[in-house]
Amino acid sequence: MAKSKLPRIAYFCMEFGLHESFPIYSGGLGILAGDILKEAKASNYPLIGVGILWRQGYTSQRIDDKGYPYDSYYEQGYDFLEDTGVQVRVRIRGRQVQCKVWKCTQFENATLYLLDANLPENDDRLITGQLYGWFSEERIAQEMILGIGGIRALKALKLPVEIYHFNDSHPVFAGVELIRDKMDEEGLTFEKAWAGVKEKIVFTTHTPVKAGNEEHDHELLQYMGAYNGLTFGQMLKLGGEPFSMTVAGLRLAKKANAVAELHGKTARRMWGEVAGAAEIIGITNGVFPGTWQDQRLANAYAQDGDLWIPHQQAKREMIAEINRRNGVQLDEEVLTFGFARRAAPYKRGNLIFSKPEIIGEYLEKGKLQIVLAGKAHPNDLTGKDIVAEMYRMSKRYPKSVVFLQDYDMKIGRLLTRGCDVWLNNPRRPQEASGTSGMKAAMNGVLNFSVLDGWWPEGCIHGVNGWQIGDGYEGKDQDAKDRDALYRVLQTEVIPTYYQKREKWLKMMRASIDMSHQQFSSARMLKDYFDKLYC
Question: How many angstroms separate the CA atoms of 380 and 135, rounded?
């Protein structure tokens, strides 16, 4: 279909990762949203973004002198944003909250509209202060601004929209606003308004663990004003009791997608019994090369040149930055693993260290280096314990293990370009997609991963990377995956790096081939328009 005939999309998301200088993102959800906006711009798709201007951004997380992470927030200056001149109001806790609408096109992205409650006329100017920095009541207030305020902003800006895409469940109050609008303006019943709205909404589900999907008590939603003119009975039909944001998203949408094929199977198992839920299809994530691929390597790949030269240049730059930040001088000739993740137990950041009698020998004798990075949610004490454990590993092996504090997009670029191997070992099937490995793959950094998220679709063991285990799921999964990790590490990864350089280079090229063919943002956005929007 010609681009001029494609439906016009408004893409709602709580966070957008466009650049580390614009910290309105926390992790993978925002990075995905940022890459989608960049691809929409590059490929001229009719898509705009709707989000929130987080005045203090997401947490800056560093390690204190006792080895434990602490959080800091700073008032951010965003002088590159354009004032649209539009303001909208959202009634929260019985008071009108005024929101200014800003426009961002600074990062070669499709237009992003951001709502901002940091205005003198508001009693609570910090509602849009910290991304994910508060508890249930403030979270609902923020989601009301994103959803209800976002729809009102699009109307005030007179922007024609044919499809509303909710990236995760945070924007579902936009669906409530659209239903209320139809009931008020067209005099429709709730059921008819809902049916009409359903034709205009699509929904992306992410979290593959039911307990991680957001729920709220109806009493709290009523107090906050999130019913927005609907009744308890009507909200009950949308989200159940307690009100599940994911269930509401699935019932509001005509179509829904998971973010990998395996995740699609998991999501259908989780939500298949929800009455009135949209069909969930798998559309695997992709990443934007303009942000994540080293241009020198891209040039060498395109010209069938030597990939080792640009790879080693990127590796030296990473090593220099590590030395500047941490005072540790890594060796560019030593096999270097990267592991950078949101700190969560299922990601098993300590799995490679679980047999110190094996891994310690490689680390202490100069055969292996590991670069770690991670950040925990400010209220997640378990996640912070994981960060502290990674930091302890860097102190245990001070010459060969490094922990980089305050993980952000810059660190992500450095590691996915400069490491030799990208390590990923979540408990299957709890990794929805895991796009950091895609970024590594397009830079010829070889994935060494459990068959979870996107990797089952791309992995050809020993050709473009390596798999850990056989996709086993069960109570002794940790032990089986640990043994498989060490076996492949000792018998394949290390010998190939040090003894079979030609094979390593062929694997690098095969990794980039795979990335271009299957895991680019261009393929992803085409799939959205072909399978989800149209």
Answer: 12
pLDDT of 332 strictly over 80: yes
Decide the pairing of beta strands 336-342 and 163-167: unpaired
Domain with CATH 3.40.50.2000 in the chain: 3-286+524-533, 289-518
Distance CA 171, CA 50 (A): 10
* Second CATH level (architecture) for the domain 289-518: 3-Layer(aba) Sandwich (3.40)
Q: How does pLDDT run across 4-38, given as a tens digit for each residue? A: 799 999 999 999 999 999 999 999 999 999 999 99
Per-residue model confidence (pLDDT) at position 1: 63
> b or e along 362-389 (b: 16 or more beta carbons within 10 Å of the residue's beta carbon)?
bbeeeebbbbbbbbbbbebeebbebbbb
Amino acid at 317: E
Token couple for 60: 């800056």
DSSP string for 396-421: HSTTTEEEESS--HHHHHHHHHH-SE
Encoding tokens for residue 368?
A: 């292996």
* Whether 357 contacts 325, CB under 8 Å: no
Phi, psi torsion values for 48, nearest 5 degrees? -125, 160
Which has the closest alpha carbon to 103: 145, 53, 41, 44? 53
CATH topology classification for 3-286+524-533: Rossmann fold (3.40.50)
Whether the predicted model's global pTM rises above the 0.85 cut:
yes
Compute CA distances 354 → 100, 278, 351, 404, whole Å: 51, 42, 5, 21
H helix runs in 327-445, sequence order? 356-364, 381-396, 409-418, 436-441
Is there a contact between 217 and 242 (Cβ–Cβ < 8 Å)? Answer: yes
Please name which of 441, 480, 474, 477 lies closest in space to residue 457, comparing C-alpha atoms. Answer: 441
| Per-residue tokens: 51 | 């989000």
Distances in Å between the Cα of 41 and the Cα atoms of 61, 110, 508 are 32, 5, 29
Give the per-residue pLDDT at 363.
98
- Phi and psi at 174, nearest 5°, equal -65, -35
